[in-house]
Amino acid sequence: MSPRQWWRAIFSRLGLKLFIVIVLVNVLVSGALYFTVARSIDDSFIDYLRRSQQQRLDTLTTTLADGYRAHGSWEWLSNNREAWQRLLRVALAPRSGAPRTEDNSRQPPLPPALGDPRQFVLLDEAGTRIIGRPGPHAHEGESRRDPGELRYTPIMVSGQQIGSLGYRAPDGVFNSIDRVFLHRQLRNLVIILVTLLLSALLLAGGLAFWLGRRTRAMALATRAMADGDYSVRLTSRGRDELSRLSRDINTLAASLARGRRDRQQWVADIAHELRTPLAVLRGEIEAIEDGVRPMDGRSLGSLHQEVSQLNRLVEDLRLLAQSDAHNLDAPMSRLDLGAHLADQLEDSRDALAQHGITLQCSLPAGIMIQGAPHRLRQLWSNLLSNSRAYTDSPGRLKVSLVQTDQQAVLTWEDSAPGVPDEALERLTERLFRLDSSRNRRRGGSGLGLSIVSALAQTHHATLTPSPSPLGGLRWTLRFPLDPQDFVRPFATTVE
């Protein structure tokens, strides 16, 4: 396995990209942090040396001025290295003191670098070296104010300059101890940054592996769904976005599987519905051709009945297809829902009475909605056909209409027989019948309630089935009221 294949086996492309981005960001941040902190440490240490040197120079010049005042000249220091070192030791020794022996004979050590006698030179008022290390090009007894790398600070007594103290700048005073200190600090900084970088790499690798594994599973699931395998399911734990996406993919797979089953059932049911009248037509036509049945009005009436059944089925299918495509012809207008329904129920009262069904209405006028009159008549007709077909004689049909705050609530309920609770949610499914034998004695094609549901959705209404107190089925339709009823004119006052 090549390194590239190995990386792809561990990480997905998204996880690998995430890992590389995190690594690059951490490397850049660590590099910038190293150079910034290293420069800060170097500058801060130099600044510390400058301040410390200035304090020691102030102390040393004060000590030299006191010595000159006490002796009246520089003769006591001229070429006297022992006195010079003793003066430096006393003036530059740390305030905390130095360890001494029991007989107090040990002298305090000179501070490193800043207390080194070779870092200083003492000049008189004429600029002649008295003692100390001369500059790189100065010779003993030579009068030179700027011996190369040295800097000078005046020594004053009673407002008069009596000499100058030369010293090296802090940048050039570094000794081995100072460099060891700086190198140690930088080494510790490198160790810290490398540790943080390794920790970031481990974290990035774990995050990339975790994310890559989950996204790879989602990619495989969606690819399987694209190939038609809707049985795939993802494990979803937690409440993060990826878990929610996994649940959505599972829901989508279940919906697609259910849609495929419904489509297959839909095709089978349509074939069955079309086959029955076609078989009857074929049988009657063959009987007429064979002379078994005469070619009379009765035979033609039977043929016409089967053709009408086929036509109704095709029209119902066409309406449902238009509803699914959201191009159903339904021009909306303002209408009185109660008056519109009352007219159709009055026209159907005699037909209901012939089936032994008593009609009871409570439909107040003045409840206005936006509706398509011919589509609403189709909706009422399908509900009436369903009540006539599935209500035993003698029976009752009760229709009532009430107005709530923003809705017109229509209740349509009939008497026994009822519908089992587990079948209520399936009543509006296409070609669904309660009887498994698909007996056409009591019902139609099984599309009537599906059309009622589609027409209700066209009017932005909700359709809810429930058991009826009369012993049968109750439908509750909730129509939104006409928006004009919520518009209140602004009052105008003319003074």
UniProtKB/TrEMBL annotation:
Residue intervals of the Histidine kinase domain: 269-483
Pfam families registered for this protein in UniProt: HAMP, HATPase_c, HisKA
Keyword Phosphoprotein part of the UniProt annotation: yes
SMART domains, per database record: HAMP (SM00304), HATPase_c (SM00387), HisKA (SM00388)
Top-level taxon of origin: Bacteria
Reaction(s) the record says it catalyses: ATP + protein L-histidine = ADP + protein N-phospho-L-histidine
Gene Ontology molecular function: phosphorelay sensor kinase activity
CDD domains: HAMP, HisKA
Subcellular location: Membrane
Keywords from the UniProt entry: Kinase, Membrane, Phosphoprotein, Transferase, Transmembrane, Transmembrane helix, Two-component regulatory system
Region entry Disordered, spans: 96-117, 130-149
This enzyme's EC code(s): 2.7.13.3
InterPro entries given in the database record: HAMP_dom, HATPase_C_sf, HATPase_dom, His_kinase_dom, HisK_dim/P_dom, HisK_dim/P_sf, TCS_sensor_his_kinase
Basic and acidic residues biased stretches: 137-149
EC main group: transferase
GO terms under cellular component: plasma membrane
TM region(s), chain numbering: 14-35, 189-211
Positions of the HAMP domain: 209-261
The name this protein goes by in its record: histidine kinase
Origin organism lineage: Bacteria, Pseudomonadati, Pseudomonadota, Gammaproteobacteria, Oceanospirillales
